[in-house]
Design brief:
- This is Calvin cycle protein CP12.
- InterPro entries: CP12-like (IPR039314), CP12_dom (IPR003823).
- It comes from Cylindrospermopsis curvispora GIHE-G1.
- This protein starts with a strand and ends in a 12-residue tail after the last helix.
- Helices cover about 55% and strands about 5% of the residues.
- It contains three helices and two strands, in the order E-E-H-H-H.
- It has a two-stranded antiparallel sheet.
- By secondary structure, it is mainly alpha-helical.
Length: about 90
């Protein structure tokens, strides 16, 4: 365990785990509550735990902004890939 001034600096971030971001936020929230109950609300560990939650929520918001919404043509081509409008020719 790496510590800096008594604060655990090991990367246990759920962002690096291959799981849903919503599940990661809930897991970090549970962990933050446990840490704050054990260490106290003003402890550095409690602050770090809540910072992790803020980072996950920011990551979630960023991912929501990056979602690509299909245009009418794209959704049409998904339904009818052989339509003339959807064919792509290599020249």
């Amino acid at each position: 365990m790496k510590t800096v001034e008594g604060v655990d600096t090991t990367n246990n971030s759920p962002i690096t785990q291959p799981q849903n971001i919503q599940q990661a936020i809930l897991a970090a929230l549970t962990q933050a509550r446990q840490v704050c109950d054990q260490q106290g609300n003003n402890s550095p560990e409690c602050s770090v735990a809540w910072d992790r939650i803020e980072e996950l929520q920011a990551q979630n918001a960023h991912q929501q902004q990056l979602k690509h919404y299909l245009t009418s043509l794209e959704s049409y081509c998904e339904r009818y890939p052989d339509a003339l409008e959807c064919l792509i020719y290599d020249l």
